[in-house]
Amino acid sequence: MRIEKSGRVVVGLSFGYHDSSCCIIRQGELLAAVQEERFSRVKNDKSFPKASLRYCLDAAGVTLEEVDCVAYYEDPEKKLARQIWMGCIDSADAVRRRDVARHIGAEPPQQQIRQAIGYSGPIEIVEHHLSHGASSYYFSGFDEAAVLTVDGVGEWATTSYGRASQEKLSIFEEVDFPDSLGLLYSAITSYLGFKVNSGEYKVMGLAPYGTGRYVDRLRKLITLQERGQYRLNLEYFGFLHTDRMYSDQLIELLGVAPRVPESEIQQEHMDLAKSLQLVLEESLLAKVDYLYSQVPCENLCMAGGVALNCVANRRIRQNGPYKNLFVQPAAGDAGTALGAAAVAYIRMFGERPCREPLQSVYLGPDYTSEEIHRLLAGSSMVFQDFRNREEELVQFTAERLAEGRIVGWFQGRMEFGPRALGARSILADPREGDMREKINALVKKREAFRPFAPAVLCEKSQEHFALSGDSPFMLQTCDVVSLLDLPAITHVDNSARVQTVAENYSPRFHALLRAFERLTDCPILLNTSFNVRGEPVICSPLDAIICFVRARIDYLVLGEFVLDQRQVPEFWKIGVSNRPIKKDNDPRAVGHAVYTFL
Ligand SMILES: [Fe+2]
């Protein structure tokens, strides 16, 4: 069905599992995308993304009545079939059965969409892996590409192979649940005492400290087969029958006790992380080789949670058969809203949206200087006003960074996806030996083994990092080749996960890096996300102030205003540090006081 009535507005939604999100495409252009957790302040929020939807409609300047189609990121009937199957094989476990029954009894998403927002127009259901694959291909700018999606599970598919050309994407082969590379990685993640669905990064960060001495044992967990297929050896896994990801047989096979969460990390845990990483990489390379045998072209698009493993992507870039690799920056489930919307757009209007490669992920809310000023003026905070003094603002910030201060940096539209890229970032001097410990002590309180990431002036990146091309989304890991000593951002294996900063997409951040370079001869800053451990990245100016005060960050650069920790009124410190973060889906609630919605 083709509809020719309208402003061609398609909304993409992902919700119900984890990382709910919403995006909006109008007239072929992606105008806004945001994760619900940023508004609700509930990390990995899976609830209906009502606040995100309100924001997206507002950003696109349309009302709900003008929306031509809402796209949902997976097929609920197919997913239900898998859930019923899981219930059938699992009748012995009452708790698990109840859990499955709860899923089965849940309202279908179409009904939820209509009830939550009163929408009565068309709803397009887009299969989960098609949503993932589309979120990569349609935003890659490639005409012809092979498409690989690897995640935990959606409906049934856990790995899928696709080809795309002439703007059409089709999936021609898939591996189905319970055989899943994503679940294999998650099972060992939980074995190592980290949280499934969020601790996988930590395993990747831990790996370079270890050796591959468990590789042979871990290879017993997976059998690679013809046509890109593989099977998990299910006796080592518990996720089908229990609420534990692994089985007693795995403990026996590995001969290492599962790590108790938050307990000390031993060498054997590092070795296990390294071995897992190696097994993942060799499995992925085999998948990519198979894909190339079916789709021999230059371009590879990847998506799915496993595609966020940038160390594996580096191997694929270096050792795989494809010349170019595009990974969607929100490759996990949050990004599926983009793919679902793109597919629905083509179904509705017969035309590909977003022909250009995705250049920036600054797709979230921004706030005017007037809004920020109003908030600051009403807050009794002491602040410096740099309005219309751009150079001075940048120079002042660069000087504080060069003095070794930690700076909260809040500028423009918020990033979509897991990485802070200079819009909601904490910045610091990467040359300081104890900066990692300093930031961890104040803000992040995260595991000491994880390095922070660098942001570098685009035009200077090759002097310091062995990058192949630009890395605007901080998705490429490479060797540090700099003559500078950069302990805060260099991993134990001499690698770094780099963001290259271009003037046209982040002008103020670029200017800051240049000013810092003028002062220090170092065109690089440590860049980590603006949040404290366990909370989502900040969204609004009020979130920024609360995080700045609670974490005792030295300076906060809030648009064109600067706050100094030493000048924060005492009563603010007491009030903020004791105050629970309000968990509320209403964006007009605390934390979003500045942004007003329709
Ligand atoms: Fe997924």
Note the topology:
Blueprint: E1 9-14, E2 21-26, E3 29-35, H1 36-40, H2 50-60, E4 69-72, H3 76-88, H4 94-105, H5 109-117, E5 123-125, H6 128-137, E6 145-150, E7 157-165, E8 168-176, H7 181-191, H8 200-206, H9 215-219, E9 222-224, E10 230-232, H10 248-254, H11 267-294, E11 299-303, H12 310-319, E12 324-327, H13 336-349, H14 369-377, E13 384-385, H15 390-402, E14 407-410, E15 424-428, H16 435-444, E16 453-457, H17 461-464, E17 476-479, E18 495-501, H18 507-520, E19 524-529, H19 541-551, E20 555-558, E21 561-564, H20 570-578
Parallel strand pairs: 1-4, 4-5, 6-11, 11-12, 14-20, 16-18
Antiparallel strand pairs: 1-2, 2-3, 6-7, 7-8, 9-10, 13-21, 14-15, 15-19, 16-19, 17-18, 20-21
Strand order of the largest sheet: 13-21-20-14-15-19-16-18-17
Number of strands: 21
Oligomer: single chain
Proportion in β-strands: 15-25%
Mean pLDDT score: 90
Describe the 3D structure:
This protein has 598 residues and is of the alpha/beta class. Helix content is 35%, strand content 18%. The strands form 4 sheets. It has a 9-stranded mixed sheet with strand order 13-21-20-14-15-19-16-18-17, with helices on both faces. α7 packs antiparallel against α11 (267-294). The longest helix is centred in the middle third of the chain and has 28 residues, at 267-294. It starts with 8 loop residues before the first strand and ends in a 20-residue tail after the last helix. The model is unreliable at 578-598 (pLDDT under 50). Fe (ii) ion binds next to α6.
